[in-house]
Amino acid sequence: GFNGSRCEVNINDCESNTCVNGTCLDGVANYTCLCDVGFKGQLCNEKVSNCSDDACYPGVNCTDISGGIACGPCPVGLTGNGKSCVSE
After folding, report:
1. Which CATH number does 2-47 carry?
2. Which residues is 47 bridged to in the sheet?
3. CA-to-CA distance for 13 and 66, rounded, in angstroms?
4. How does DSSP classify residue 24?
5. Tens-place pLDDT, residues 28-87
């Protein structure tokens, strides 16, 4: 929106909207959050998961860690690093 006697002053919409993990860019009657790496969403308050459906071997637990992922142990009867498992 605008303020001023002739509505000539653009209101800073970033003052009332907090980008949690990002930088706010003021627009005309709106704002946009530019999210830091690793975050998403309108307010940059959702952590991006590096664990996709196929990140680890099927049935192996995936955990987000700084700079990537960690796969749990391979299922019983299989050996490997959790991302790739083969018969023992």
Report:
1. 2.10.25.10
2. 39
3. 33
4. E
5. 888 899 999 888 999 999 988 888 878 899 999 999 887 788 999 999 999 999 999 999
